[in-house]
Amino acid sequence: MNFTLRQLQYFRAVAEQRNFGRAAQVCHVSQPALSVQIKALEQTMGGPLFERQARDILLTPLGRDVLEHARGVLGAADRLDRFARDHSGGHRSLSIGVIPTVAPYLLPGVLAGLRAADVSLRVQIREARTERLLSMLRRGEIDAAVLALPVGGSELEELPLFEDRFLLAGSEARLSRLSISPEALRPIDLGSAQLMLLEDGHCLTDQALEVCGQDRTSAQINMGASSLATLSRLVAEGFGLTLMPEIAAQSESDAVPGLRLLRFGAPQPARTVGLVRRASTANEDWFEKLAQVIRQVGEDIVGGTQI
Q: Where are the beta strands (DSSP E) in the chain?
């Protein structure tokens, strides 16, 4: 083998950062040292891996092929390194991904539950949007992910955990102006001019648009907030209405005094939060134990929401 893991790490960093200087900072090396290793890798692979433009760095066709293999090699090396460290120290480790609209509300209880159940378990958390988590899961960078189901793909195993209902959130003045009684209110009754949602790319935005019978082409829908915390403060000030997942409702209500919540009439719209792993992962008990802890914490949160 004429290439090294270090060369592959530098190559991946340049491919992701699309800039040699930023890649060198990420890898904690000087730019000349990184460039030397990239040049050596290109010689080994038999051609240029990057197309160097004035203000951008693009992968060549050879570079795209090499990147796919490099990610697989680095993912396997990382798992081997974690295994060696855990085995020598008597610990086991898990890397878990969680979507942003669940992570801040679910993780404190989940981590406390895991710590109580197994003090030798070392947990690493990665927070990212669904598309990114699924990519990381398929590449072996994480062991499991907490997502809204379904995600699809025969190579993945999905386990439903709990139902996360959608509530209508806004200011008291906004909610009082609704022309339909709460018992009869449906998300589809909301006009697009009233809706404020997270920025495009969040699965929660797609789910909210679907249950409201809207699409992202509507110029009246404001999709600019980057987090539920920001969205809560905007609608509390009367700038619109939004759909709030119940898992976040109590926390955001406590943090934003002006935020008011309203339940929709039955059947209430909801998303299913579940745990996903690769179907090829060995059948060990950690997956079921992790699912049990997450399910209990999630059900406790949504069951305790006061409206």
A: 50-52, 57-59, 92-98, 121-127, 144-149, 156-170, 196-198, 222-225, 242-245, 260-263, 270-278
All structural domains of the chain: 5-81 (1.10.10.10), 164-269 (3.40.190.10)
What pLDDT band is residue 193 in, cutting at 50, 70 and 90?
low
pLDDT for 47 beyond 60: yes
| Confidence category of residue 192, pLDDT binned at 50, 70, 90 | low
Task: Kindly state the DSSP code that residue 193 receives in the 8-state scheme.
Answer: G
Peptide bond into 150 cis (omega under 30): yes
Higher pLDDT, 285 or 252: 252
Count CB neighbours of 54 within 10 A: 4
Rounded distance between C-alpha atoms, residue 99 and residue 80, angstroms? 26
Q: Are 187 and 264 in contact (CB under 8 A)?
A: yes
Token representation of residue 66: 């090499």
In angstroms, the Cα distances linking 122 to 107, 119, 129, 296 are: 14, 8, 23, 20
Cα dist from 117 to 123, 254, 288, whole Å: 13, 29, 13
Hey, is 43 helix, strand or coil?
helix
